[in-house]
Amino acid sequence: MKIYTLHTKQNLPISVDEAWEFLSSPKNLKTITPDYMGFHILSGADRPMFPGQIIQYIVTPVLGIKTKWVTEITHVKDKEYFVDEQRFGPYALWHHKHFIKPIEGGVEMEDIVDYKVPMGILGQMVHPILVKPKLEEIFNYRTKKLEELFGKY
Questions:
Q1: Which long-range contacts (CB under 8 A, 24 or more apart) does 26-29 make?
Q2: Is the pTM of this model over 0.70?
Q3: In the predicted model, is pLDDT for residue 62 greater than 90?
Q4: Residue 51 main-chain phi, psi, to 5 deg
């Protein structure tokens, strides 16, 4: 069983409060997701983030195939971090940690995603060709979008 990790960091010239207000609102996920993903929240984004929150989405990651994705917010430490885990969706495992910490002149945002692709050896063969580049593309889009919204550090 191969588990992959995607690790990104980004500095923004905003306060911890501003970063937390934006990132901890599930409704803002659509803003930082590429349009071609067809991201649509079905339920669970009607209140501020809390442990145990279930959020249901529809995404269209490849070939126009709509996929239901259900995540649970499993851990929240106000203005420091939160964790979302896939309960149902395209991955065999999805565990996404979001960290926010103050730095001089702004905040550092760090994402660590541990994930496993489905379909065993076939999934592992497709990973470097399709899955990894797609995830990197999505997180690069987020970086650019957050800079558009909040400025460059």
A1: 26/53, 26/55, 29/57
A2: yes
A3: no
A4: -60, 135
